[in-house]
């Protein structure tokens, strides 16, 4: 899908405020509401906009400990990886699971929990019990320096 400046502006604005009204969105990009809405629908149907979400405050929810976990697998087979990925997808504390290269690990997980006790329970009772997990290395997040959800959308490009 070829994006013009209006499409890029729409994507930038919606990433910052997914609840903006179509009228306000149209006003901000300099289009009338009908063509603006057609463009938003086309971006949705084209798969560029895949959903709308509320961003929550983890600390306000009592989730004060974030960790990055590097997981090593015992076998590098599609079946082993698929089974691991299916198991990890069912753990609510896992915010992100990335298959990675360039490390001794195969996966990097980003998890959030209440405290160190909750982390220990998550690790020992749920993650290390997944068949194929042969190594775990954890780093605890001290502070989020950059925490974005928006993808860069150069309006002029």
TrEMBL record:
Entries under Gene3D superfamilies matching the protein: 3.30.70.920, Winged helix-like DNA-binding domain superfamily/Winged helix DNA-binding domain
Every HTH asnC-type domain range: 3-64
Xref: InterPro entries: ArsR-like_HTH, AsnC-type_HTH_dom, Dimeric_a/b-barrel, Tscrpt_reg_AsnC-like, Tscrpt_reg_AsnC/Lrp_C, Tscrpt_reg_HTH_AsnC-type_CS, WH-like_DNA-bd_sf, WH_DNA-bd_sf
Superkingdom assignment: Bacteria
Matches recorded under PROSITE patterns: HTH_ASNC_1, HTH_ASNC_2
Molecular function GO labels: sequence-specific DNA binding
One Pfam family linked to the record: AsnC_trans_reg
DNA-binding recorded as keyword: yes
Residues spanning the membrane: none
SUPFAM superfamilies: Dimeric alpha+beta barrel, Winged helix' DNA-binding domain
One Gene Ontology cellular component: cytosol
Keywords annotated in UniProt: DNA-binding, Transcription, Transcription regulation
GO biological process, one term: response to amino acid
Name of the protein this chain belongs to: Transcriptional regulator, AsnC family
